[in-house]
Please model this.
Amino acid sequence: MEELEKLRDNEFRLKKRADRLVAEQEEFVARWEKLLTEQGRLLAEQEELLAMQEKLAAEGKRLAMEREKLISEQRRLLDQRRRLAEEVRQKQQGL
Model:
């Protein structure tokens, strides 16, 4: 009889422990799913930021090319101005 009581007591403690472990496992799974969801959100945000970075890099490249064109045009106009100034100076000296 005493043996049967010990077995029932052990069975009760084991079931209680098993229930606790199942609850902990369910809690762990819920936290894991939450972390996976957060990771997915962060990955999507990272992809969005990367796309924005690529867009900004392309815009920066376009602006650099535009700047180079403007610098070339500015040099061309400066050379033209120097030539005209030289022509004017030569004409004034010829008068």
User: Anything to note?
Assistant: The chain has a mean pLDDT of 96. The two ends are 138 Å apart (CA to CA).
